[in-house]
Amino acid sequence: MAFLIGVAVASLFFAVLFFFFVDRPARKLIELMEQAPEKNFLVRAPSRRRDVIGRLYRSFNTLLERITTLDATQLETEREMTALQDKLHLQKTLEARLNELRLIYEFSKQVSTTLEVDELYSTVERFIGDHLGFHEFALLVLEEAEGPGENAKLSVKVARGFSDEKRVLGMTFQEGEGITGRTLQKAQMIYIPDTSHSEEYLHYKGQKQEDGSFLSMPLLFKKKVVGVLNMFRKGVDAFSPEEMKFLDTLTVELAIAVVNTKLYSKTRELSVRDELTQLYNRRYFQEILPLEIKRSQRFKRPLSLLMIDIDHFKRFNDRFGHLVGDECLKEFVRVVNSRIREVDFFARFGGEEFVLILPGTPKQDGVLVAEKIRALVKEHAFRSGSEDERLRSERLTVSVGVAAYPDDARTVEELIDAADIALYEAKNGGRDRVNCYEPLKQVSSS
Question: Using CB atoms within 10 A of its CB, is residue 259 exposed (0-12), middle (13-18) or buried (19+)?
Fold first, then answer.
């Protein structure tokens, strides 16, 4: 019995020893090891023991220290990689932005130094098509209403990527007509990712049957639309947000260029146009005549020059007043313009004197044109009162001098002098007549 009690006590004693020196330390180690997968590498096992368990604790602590070092290194590496990626992304973004700014600057420089309208359109087509690589686009410019009851409209000035670009050039869109007309109406960018699902897309009135992505951007100057830039690309949603933003920025420079060329064209037009009759003035006539003579030389074709003077127009002005006289001058211009060709050049030489260049017209045909003009003016009833007064009709006549190149002259000055001499003789001979310059007669009289 005592033996059994001794065995039981010994077993209990060894159980207690096992619990305190083996089981509990082992459980502690297991607990610490279970925390390691949760990245809790800063915990440490008590390492003061000198037994096997103590050595196991110290080995475990050493392992944790190395893992902690490795983890810290990995975290630092990950942070450095993230920072490097952010830096590379920022660098790429900055490079892309700098490239965009360079392109915009280059575009601005090219279009800002262009004042002629046709040259601007050529520059835009080359830059957007060749330099930027957009193959299908159109530039439309707003044309003001020509008369009462008419509306402003967009007219195609540049077209690329069409099967027949000539059919598209000059095509017009009214406000609200199709996507382009709606861009004019709303003064906002319109993007159609898939034109096959858009009833408003007109396919340039049947001239571009393909479907794809269509981007229509207004050219805004002082919040007013001065034109529209249309871009097209095959495929659905083919324009990226970055491209749209870049092109939108490009339209700002393009709008300024369009306005500048229009202003220059208008200023130049005013400088070469007669304010009253809207005919070209004497200065511009003296620029055009040498060019026409050179063209006649190149193609070996004749040219006739008519100098026209309204007979006794000073008396008419004295009798009815200059306001009525001005209206008659404008009516006279309308009468003559109704019977001449588009290639003919009609200008006001000064006062009641006018000149008419007839390219490709021999002298005898020039005389026939002059006779038609003389008869037409004589038969026309010119109004000599305002709308509020009783209308009276007055008759006017003209004297015309005709000279031709190369029959009568070889230079610009000689041709003008010859036509002037012929006009003087027509007036001296009684007016209301056409007189043809005769070189032999001038030689014999001298």
Answer: middle
pLDDT at 222 over 80: yes
Rounded to whole angstroms, the Cα distance separating 325 from 250 reads 51
Report residue 160: phi and psi, to 5°. Answer: -140, 140
Q: Which two tokens stand for residue 309?
A: 């003077």
Residue 438 has pLDDT above 60, yes or no: yes
Token pair listed for 156? 């195609």
Contact 213, 195 (CB under 8 A): yes
| φ/ψ (deg, to 5) at 391 | -75, 135
φ, ψ dihedrals at 220, nearest 5°: -105, 130
Its pTM stands at 0.58
Instruction: Give the strand order in the sheet containing 398-405.
Output: 345-350, 353-359, 303-310, 398-405, 434-436
Closest CA to 276 of 330, 195, 229: 330
What is the rounded CA–CA span in Å between residue 149 and residue 162?
Answer: 33
Q: Where are the alpha helices (H) located in 127-240, listed in sequence order? A: 165-168, 178-186, 203-206
